[in-house]
Amino acid sequence: MLEKVSVAQARLEESVGKEVVLQGWVRTCRDMKTMCFIALNDGSCFGNIQLVADDSLTNYDSEVKKLTTGSSIYAEGKIVASPGSEQPTEVQVTKLEVYDIAPAEYPLQKKRHTLEFLRSIAHLRPRANTFNAVARVRNRLCYSIHQFFQSRGFYYIHTPLITASDCEGAGEMFKVTTLDLANVPRTPDGNVDYTQDFFGKPAFLTVSGQLAVENYACAMGKVYTFGPTFRAENSNTSRHLSEFWMIEPEMAFYTLSENMQLAEEFLKTLLRDVLNDCAEDMQFFNDRIDPSHTLLESLTKIVECDFQRCSYTQAIEILTNAKQKFQYPVQWGVDLQSEHERYLTEVHFKGPVIVHDYPKDIKAFYMRLNDDEKTVRAMDVLTPGVGEIIGGSEREYRYDVLENRLKELGLNPEDYWWYLDLRRFGTVPHSGFGLGLERILMFVTSMQNIRDVIPFPRFPGNAEF
Ligand code: ATP
Ligand code: MN
Fold it and tell me: Is the pLDDT at 41 greater than 90, yes or no?
């Protein structure tokens, strides 16, 4: 009986002797006159399997010899130990059928392409090594994220993507509307009449599931949400997307320090899983993507060492005493810029650092106010190369303090009635954080541009594919 196997399975030494079917895409075909060596890839793993096809095949001259890069084929054959040293196994082909011969204009010919070029063919780039590898690591991370929380008794909660509170406080929002933009209904005083809109009021795509998931934490203890988030900020950077995925755990009865502890264990677990289970892909990132080829070494070190902690106030001291000149001046009260984050992680601490207790004026309204009344129990996890990958806090759970903070910021407490209700009926201390999936993916793979770690990136001016 022929067994249908993946390239990953066919490459295992224990598969030697099996009669198999393989299907995939030709990476290269070397024509040696009476035989061809075909490198076949099906995306199941980084490497290819070598198919050896000779002129005993009836369609050898008519089809096999004409195989081009990108062609799709079906092959039957026997897995044998490979005489070559590059791979443990190869396949002696007994039958080969062609689904499609890719013409010469197939854009992914065997040569190095720039990431910019590959971005312009996002529909085909999953067949390129780099994107294949990114997709597999991304998949492993997502699996690991669920495993981490599920094994610790967290419940997975789906928070809405469409929200009518424009008050999540995390960034610019995309509007969701069914109003006819060419003919917008107006109120007598000339404003848009949202009562005629789909939800009867303005609606938006969510920038964070946090406010919603807090309600579940205050009922079920430990919960997390993991889904797409949308930000309409016009920031054309290599670290921002308009649509990205965020993991947001929220824990009742967690202090800020327990929150930081969880964030550290979480990141280390993700790194460990990827290092263990995506070894071949990770070796590629180390050798071909990371310019210093130290990716594996530095991730391994991070898994083994404690993350540094430092208060915002200490961080400002460190930056003020730095010999380096910064483009953005440093003084207590300013938000940390990317150059500051990089100095802290890359130069000063030489590893991940958790900065905590930020000035309240640069953080969101829902963060717990410290007794000094100047700082809030916020924390950001900063990593070398990427900067901020996690932002979190202990939440303000005192009704009066929260209401005051809203008013201070010119927000209307009535808009937050259900959020405030949590603080009215059995309020409890609680904490949580948000991890950007693409940020951790950049960190793990050393990919430099966030647009290359999500299948179809959305950013200002681009929603192609
Ligand atoms: P930054 O300062 O880097 O713009 P932020 O402070 O606006 O981020 P938060 O609101 O704290 O971000 O969001 C939590 C996490 O979501 C961040 O730590 C980051 O990992 C990720 N994130 C935020 N904005 C984006 C974005 N536009 N694209 C991709 N990931 C993002
Ligand atoms: Mn943040």
Answer: yes
User: What distance in Å separates the CA atoms of residue 15 and residue 2, rounded to the nearest whole number?
Assistant: 13
The count of other CB atoms within 10 Å of the CB of residue 10 is 29
Atom of ligand 1 minimally distant from the CA of 392:
11
Task: Encode pLDDT of 245-288 as tens digits.
Answer: 999 999 999 999 999 999 999 999 999 999 999 999 999 999 99
Q: Which pLDDT belongs to residue 169?
A: 62
Instruction: Give whole-number Cα distances, 143 to 140, 147, 269, 276, 324, in Å.
Output: 5, 6, 12, 13, 41
The tokens describing 297, both together, are: 């070494």
Site residues for ligand 1, CB cut-off 6 Å: 170-171, 231, 240-241, 244, 246, 388-391, 434-436, 438-439, 450
pTM above threshold 0.90: yes
Neighbours of ion ligand 2 (CB under 5 A): 391
Structural Rg of the chain based on CA atoms: 27
Please report, to the nearest 10 degrees, the dihedral formed by the alpha carbons of residues 121, 284, 86, 39 taken in order.
-10
Q: Strands across the sheet with 175-176, in order?
A: 162-163, 203-205, 175-176
Residue 369 and residue 378 in contact, taking contact as beta carbons nearer than 8 Å: no
231 — phi, psi (to 5°)?
A: -135, 125
State the CB neighbour count (10 A cutoff) for residue 48. Answer: 22
Please check the confidence at residue 385 and state whether its pLDDT lies above 90.
no
Residue nearest to atom 23 of ligand 1 (CA): 436
- Among candidate residues 103, 84, 446, 98, the one with its CA nearest the CA of residue 289: 446
pLDDT of residue 50: 97
